[in-house]
Structure formats: C-alpha cells, structure tokens
Amino acid sequence: RLQFGCQDKVTGLFKTQLEDGIMGMDNRPGAFWLQLNEHYRSRGFVVTDSADGERDGDPFDPTQFALCYDRQPLSLDLESGVGSGALTLGGSDPMLHLTGMAFAENVTPKIGWYTVRITAMFLRPGGGTLLGGGRGDDAKLVRVDASEAKLNGRKGPGTGVIIDSGTTDTYLPEAAQAAFDEAWRVALDDESASYNNDPVEMTAAQVSSLPTILVVLRGHASSSSSDSAGSAGSHPDISSAVGPGDVVVAVPPTHYMEESRRSPGTWTSRVYFSERSGAQSILGSNFMMGHEILFDAGGGRIGFSESHCDYDRLVQERQRQQTAAGLSGAEGEVAKGAAQIGVSVEEGEEAAFAVDEKQDVAAVTGV
C-alpha cells in the first residue's frame, strides 16, 4: 500500500497550476521511491544473490531514479498541460543520453536532500550546451572569481547546494553576486552590463546569445576516469582549475531566461543570488533542464547526461528500434530494466506522477 498525505487547503501556485500535489523523492522515510523499494523487495521483484545482500546482474535498482526535464516553447494554452519530460524508475535510460553520464558526489548520502558541492563556476560567451552552440571552441571561458565557500554559502566540505525539482528557479548565495557580475561584464565584453533579475525585452536570438553558465560540481569516484563531455577532464580550461573528475553542468540562457506568458517577448533571468550566508541554496528545475539526472541513493552519487528529454521522441525512437529488431507494438523493454513514464506539467511548475506496478517487461506510457 502507498502511504500519502492529503491536503485540505492550498495557497499560491497550487491554486492555479494544473497539478496540485508534490511527489516526495528525497532520501527520507515515506519517500515514494523508498516505498517502492520496500514493496519490490518484499515481493521478490528484486533478488539478492550474495551473502552481503548485493544484487547480481539485476539491471533494475529500486534505489535509483532519473528525471529528465524538457524546455518547452512558450504556450498560452495550458488547458491540456505540457509534456515536459520523463521519469525513469530503477535506473536511467541510455536512449535519452546525448553525452556520457558523469557522476557528482552526493555529499549527504545517508539521508535528506540530494546535495552537491560547487567547486567552480564559469561563463561561456555565446550560449550553447556542452555539445556545442554559441561561439564554439574559440569562446574563452570566464571564471567566476569566488571561493568555494562563497559559491556554496557554507564552508564545511560536507555541505553544499541541494538539487530540487520542486523549486522552479535557482537560488545561489548572495556572497557570490559581485564575482558573477564581474564575470558577466567580461563575458559580454561590455563594462556597462549588469546582471540582474529585471524583466527585459529581447528577441529569441538575443536570448540564445547570452552566456551559458557552467556549474562545476565535486565529482564522485566513479567519474575519476570519465571521458564524458560532462567531465571536467574533457575541458582543459576547467580541469586546470578543479579536479579532472569533477562534473560540468551547462545551463544555457534558454534555460535560465524565462519568457513572460502575459507579455511575450519580455524575459527574466531566473537565477537569483539571494541566499544569505548559512542559508540553503538551491539548484532548481531550470538548472536540471536538458539533462537526464540519475539520483543514485544507494551509490551516493548523482549522474548528469545532456539530453533532449523529449518523451514523445523517446517513444518513437524505441518503437523504431523494436521494429528493427522484429518486434511490434508500443510495449517493450525499457533500458536497464527500468519502469518509465512521461511527465506532464504546467509550464514552470511541479510535477505529479502515476506509476503502474513493475512488470517483468515494463510498458512505456505517457502521463
């Protein structure tokens, strides 16, 4: 049985958004994935073959799940919702990966939020992702000259910034604001430029040409020899300043800039330097967009792979793959034995999910 709570009063965005609930996926008792883990194990879906309780060759790991959020174009009609990505239970889906997965360390692996440690931050003029765009390889990276303590808002090595899909925007320490402002002016080659969160009229092309924010996270041991584009070792300008096993996450301007539904053509940056020293900074869903992010609670790591995160495209590609293999129909084996569903949310808001019980062959279904 699934335990859940009911609310009898809502305020703020819960009154207007299509989905009116939150699925808890952090590492605390009562979390959805933990309930599934207990359910699967008690009914023999997950088999432990060794004396120490380790699984042997089972691709489905109920201590893992992955989120992949897509950036949808501005829509003024939200009656039917917006397809915004995929949730994969039991692992990740390589068919969603445009780059190899690189793993950051979860600095609070025992319980609670999924916390990462920012080791550096850079701006890349001209926008784009790790795979390309912007001004290409000729674009000189501009480092945000702030200490690790300022970037995280806390000094302790076991502290950091949480990754939270339930928070729409990104909130970073105010102590890093001055260094980011200076890097912003250099990246734009404009001494009069000022980074702020004021609405501004821009064309889509102008937005795309703004700097990409490169956030470098402390790497997990499993990424120490990775040659993924998400590994700091693949970027000489970055690896010379941080560990080669650290992880680079690109946040292009099309993700951190948001167009107004009420006033199309007006854009606002949704990365805020607002958190006081000691407060909890947050990398929200606009940081997560365009990546399949694997939350591996059992392994104490968080994986990042750039992705299109388009669930409809994923279903079509899997159907073509099955047809080529001599199969037919919409059902088939999900990569790595994981159960997978589509995510449908109102733009800029949180998600609500419904999942069928795991079968030997998982059906790919949209929500």
Describe the structure.
- There is one protein chain.
- By secondary structure, the chain is an alpha+beta fold.
- It is built from 8 helices and 18 strands.
- The chain has helices at 32-42, 148-152, 177-188, 204-208, 236-239, 253-256, 285-288, 311-324, and strands spanning 64-69, 82-89, 102-105, 115-116, 118-124, 142-143, 161-163, 170-173, 200-201, 212-217, 247-251, 257-259, 266-269, 271-275, 282-283, 291-296, 301-306, 339-345.
- Strands 3-17-16-1-2-18 form a 6-stranded antiparallel β-sheet, with no helix packed on it. The chain has a 4-stranded antiparallel β-sheet with strand order 6-5-10-11. Strands 4-7-15 form a 3-stranded mixed β-sheet.
- Strand 12 (257-259) and strand 13 form a beta hairpin.
- The longest helix has 14 residues, at 311-324.
Please summarize what this structure is:
This protein has 367 residues and is α+β, with helices and mostly antiparallel strands.
